[in-house]
Queue: 2 jobs
Job 1
Amino acid sequence: MNLLIVYGTTEGQTRKIAERMATDIRGRRHQVELLDSARFTPDLKLGHFDAFIIAASVHQEHHQEAVTTFVFAHHDLLSGKPSALVSVSLSAALDGHEAAAQKYVDRFVSVTGWQPRMTLLLGGALRFTKYDYFQEQFVKFVVMKGEDPGPGQDHEFTDWNALAGFTDRFLATIG
Ligand SMILES: Cc1cc2nc3c(=O)[nH]c(=O)nc-3n(C[C@H](O)[C@H](O)[C@H](O)COP(=O)(O)O)c2cc1C
């Protein structure tokens, strides 16, 4: 099988997630190409791929615009082949915030018209040491609703075992 992973990342965590999936897929003896949504090439031949994984992170309640545009433009092709969505957010990792994480996905599906075969809501990372004032305030007060982020400045919430299990299950659906 030949898979394409298209990812959108703002601070780098989703790139790390996409790269981990690619490593796992190659370990299962499939071919895989990684494409950063910020670097689309018009000559990319999507018809060459047997299955697709879209991975994008959430900022201010939305996935990256470049990913949304790509999926909207190709939703028929994506819906006609095995395809999966990995939605990376803080809400996916925080107790009591699952509904918000699901809401981002529901909106993405409704805006793009694509119905992924499988979806994973996956925790991302907090990088307070890299945020500017606005980013820090937004994460603390809008996303975390004033909850104490804890003493550590930066924290990775990504459940790598859940990701590996998801990748395996998706590969099992495409044979
Ligand atoms: C400015 C900013 C806004 C964010 N907005 C949201 C949000 O609305 N909902 C959410 O669940 N997570 C939000 N997050 C958390 C990100 O989804 C999380 O940090 C993720 O790991 C980012 O992935 P990336 O490094 O691939 O861009 C936000 C993060 C930042 C820095």
Job 2
Amino acid sequence: MPLRPWSRDAVPVATGSEASAFDRAAVERGVPERSLMESAGRAAADLAMRLAPEGPVIVVTGAGHNGGDGVVAARTLAARGRSVRIVAVGARPDPDPLLHGWVVPVRRVDDPADWPADAIPGSAALVIDALLGTGLRGEPRPLQAAAIRAMVAAAEAGVPVLALDVPSGVVADTGACPGPSVRASATLCFGWPKLGALLEPGRARAGRVVAAEIGFPPSDDAFGACLLTPAWAARVRPRRDPVTHKNRVGAVTVVGGGEGMAGAVILAARAALRSGAGFVRIVSDAANREVAQTTLPDAPFVPLDSLDAVDDAIARSGAVVFGPGLGTGEGRETLVERVLAHDRPAVIDADALNLLAEGRPFDVESLIAPRAPRLLTPHPGEMARLLGVSVAEVEADRPDAARRLVARSGATVVLKGTPSLVASAGRPLGLSSLASSDLAVAGMGDVLAGSAGAFLAQGAPACDAAGLALLYGARAAHLTGLGAGLAASDVPEALPRALGEDAAPHTDLPFPWLTLDLDAPR
Ligand SMILES: NC(=O)C1=CN([C@@H]2O[C@H](COP(=O)(O)OP(=O)(O)OC[C@H]3O[C@@H](n4cnc5c(N)ncnc54)[C@H](O)[C@@H]3O)[C@@H](O)[C@H]2O)[C@@H](O)CC1
Ligand SMILES: [K+]
């Protein structure tokens, strides 16, 4: 199973506005706009020839620079002997100077009420969508909406669509689709992947996301987000010294599991062990002792009402995982106070978050300026409770919700979902590159919390621990080969294989300009 996505490291991700500001700054410092467009269009022609090695290509162009990229791609394909036609939507110069004198048939369409049915024939081998890029403002106007609908119809008839920079109709800042939007089989982003192609609903429209180096200056710290990839994980993950002992490689205490909820702590504890922790303790309801010790004899058991023993377990640990299956019944406040009084890196999950959301005994603001890193791992429902908003409001702007919880808590935040996000003060927003519907199964949150706890205990900063747990957990799930039949308890067993994989990320795209090759969502 080839390791995907391919990249050299984490990949900077630009919103449409950041990309436009960066474009302008590059041009102001003397980078010729035409040379950027030339590289963009030629990369598009390279990818088009790979996606459709033969047969006619239709390029749908708009009036802006996205359309210009499309004209360069059309001219390059024509110069390489391919049959290509432009469908020009809105004004472009005639003849277009970007054609460099090559003759490419152009069909102009100006009337939204009269979209020619044969403009995009079902016999086309590929449609290139160069209608709207980062310049889209508001809902596509009637003419552009008609062109988008024609491209959607072509996609539904089985013609592959290659979108340039962002599928037309998708807002490059947010992934929102205020009107009709193109369904691309692949999207080629110029310079950097656009945030809107990585966040839903834009992600589902973008298909495979490929990014190309086209001659921009370095982007150091210019953008607010980055894609966390397997190549990044392999670089930052903690590794054991050859000479060491069990307490030096990460001791974790998992605190959770009210009566009858032993499964959650066992999953988290097993995930911590399988993520490389050298010593894992379980603190849980006394009623769970037998099942915990039978299922996971490796982990010493401490009953959670023996508060002095709990203190002792935490004091001996490098990190705490607090909350899986905990329950929010009476008396839990004392435990919250006791556990969070420790100067220990902590993953705060599930019912520990629900207790904080109710201010029992204090709220997330009291976590600010902790002496040790805190990692909060809410799903959208828990996030909504913590912020006092609806789940719909969280889903409407997930990066904003994650950043707001960071501002309120001072902690690092993982907002689970597609994709899961990692937010931390002063760091770009991390997006997990390994989302899959296979992970939508009960107990995956417990596995994530346990795994993140293990990376924290091994010395990773909270944001790295979060990203590592997301990526290795998802990769482990993939390696099981169980698809939609995956159970959370399968994942810890596959974590060592994911962590031990020495395969380099793989791509079948042989282009020197390639900076990212990310599969379509499954
Ligand atoms: N400026 C640069 O340095 C580079 C820009 N590049 C390309 O340029 C694109 C951005 O170019 P532009 O800023 O010209 O913007 P676009 O080409 O994305 O869009 C602008 C055009 O869309 C129209 N438009 C905007 N909102 C609309 C709506 N709601 N309905 C219908 N039409 C609408 C505008 O009237 C204008 O004609 C990028 O996405 C990328 O493809 C690349 O060539 C790389 C270099
Ligand atoms: K486009």
